[in-house]
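ok new one. same drill as before - structure tokens go in, u give me an amino acid for every spot. 104 of them this time. try not to just spam alanines like last time pls lmao
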């Protein structure tokens, strides 16, 4: 399980969401390495997020491939930057990610 922490460096967006996951400034969120692999790849490249403990524990092997595919189809394309904060990097696949919004 990976631990992701959002940092509001510019004090413009104290809360934000990415791929349906809500983040609050300096509050770690735990994500399954396998279910959120693409999301974690992208967040590792963004200066507003810190990803820790990735790959240290194995995820539940009973999670099915259809569940992973369903989650991926629900995510769609999203921007990595909170509104008014930062840049939009590309994931390891090289795809540009668009659509992230600030919540606060």
């Amino acid at each position: 399980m990976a631990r992701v922490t959002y940092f509001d460096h510019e004090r413009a967006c104290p809360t934000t969401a990415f791929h349906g996951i809500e983040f609050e400034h300096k509050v770690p969120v735990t994500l399954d390495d396998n279910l959120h692999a693409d999301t974690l790849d992208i967040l590792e490249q963004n200066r507003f997020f810190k990803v820790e403990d990735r790959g240290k524990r194995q995820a539940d092997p009973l999670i099915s491939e259809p569940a992973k595919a369903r989650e991926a189809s629900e995510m769609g394309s999203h921007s990595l930057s909170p509104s008014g904060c930062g840049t939009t990097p590309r994931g390891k696949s090289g795809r540009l990610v668009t659509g992230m919004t600030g919540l606060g």
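The helical segments are 37-43, 65-75. and btw Confidence is low (pLDDT under 50) at residues 75-84, 86-90, 94-104.
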